[in-house]
Amino acid sequence: ILSTNIILPAFADIGRQLGVSSRELGLTLSSFFITFALAQLVVGPLADHFGRMRLVLGGLWLFVAGTLVAGLAGSLDMLIAGRVIQALGVCAAAVLARAIARDLFEGQALARALSLTMIATATAPGFSPLLGSLLTTTLGWRAIFVIVGVAAVVIAFLYARGLGETLPPERRTTRSVPQVVGAYWRLIADERFILPGTAVSLLMSGLFASFAAAPAILMSGMGLSSLQAGLYFAVTVFVVFAAGMAAPRLARRVGRRTVAILGLTTAMLAGCLLLVGPSDPGLGWYSLSMASFLWGMGLANPLGTAITMEPFGKQAGLASALFGFMTMGAAAITTWLVSILEYPPVSSLGVIQTSVCFVALTLFVASNQIESRTARS
């Protein structure tokens, strides 16, 4: 996840060295996200058949290879190729983090594990622009790829030594391609999966929309430098951390579904703050909305993910892959909308966050009603 947008602050330097525009460099992001999203659909079934460890370690080493290609790139085509290889590799670790958590835990323990996963997922994009800016200004943009490559090697070592395989052979499944397609279709048709899973995916798309809108709001609108904007997002990460820690504790008191609904409602109200406020707000008003959204997301994401994944322990890899594809697909749509809506950036973000959170809340409430009827019957 750290590798997704860490190169953003380096676009100017990369463009000068490779002789391309920032718009052309946008292909390094879109190619990464498209590859990441599609590759997940393949990784999930493979992990259910071969186990988690082979896919995670193989993916991390493939990511290192892609990092090497990108770090040595002398042209835009080579840089894009490196990013595609990176995405192919890193998607395995990203997808299987949820599957591994489902292998090992259930109930409240699963919610706690997914809270930590969510914190890492949200923290990395928050800190990565700051890290990318510092590395670019001090060591040059190629140092970015050195750092993420070293991080992947360390993670591979720690994973192999500390966790290892979490899916024993007797729990593995073998599916042909038609069977995989059928299994995906059954998940899509299963209300226990598709309703909460879509709700969480839409919620996370609001987070990615805020990252996409940040340069226009913070730098063009408020005059912050790239370093100041990076520091701003680094500080907001602590809101996510606090919410992620609070979510399992609140769930033990009032129930996972109640807390998830509270989180979705808070995130929706955060989007409303941008709509009712000025189109060119000060840092304080924008920060209030941002902190509210992150708090709501931090509550709803891990609990909603646990609710989505828990009924599908026997096909956790498959479910996690489809869940990840839905999230990245929704994120691709909202980040695209940020760039094309003909409104001030703050208004565009407010419309997107309010809309996706309203739909997410509606789907999640419907999921709760179905769950209640099933329990009574």
Number of strands: 0
Largest sheet: none
CA-CA gap between termini: 42 Å
Global structural class: mainly alpha
User: Can you tell me the residue ranges where pLDDT is under 50 for at least 5 consecutive residues?
Assistant: none
The coarse silhouette is globular
Taking all Cα atoms into account, the compactness measure Rg is 20 Å
Write the layout of secondary structure elements.
Elements: H1 11-18, H2 22-50, H3 52-71, H4 76-104, H5 107-139, H6 142-162, H7 177-189, H8 191-221, H9 226-254, H10 256-276, H11 283-309, H12 316-340, H13 345-376
Provide an overview of this structure:
It is a single chain. The chain is mainly alpha-helical and 377 residues long. The protein contains 13 helices and no strands. It has helices at 11-18, 22-50, 52-71, 76-104, 107-139, 142-162, 177-189, 191-221, 226-254, 256-276, 283-309, 316-340, 345-376. Helix 3 packs antiparallel against helix 6. The chain is globular and about 60 Å long. The N and C termini lie far apart (42 Å).
At a glance:
This protein is mainly alpha-helical and 377 residues long.
What brief labels describe this structure?
single chain, mainly alpha, 84% helix, 377 residues
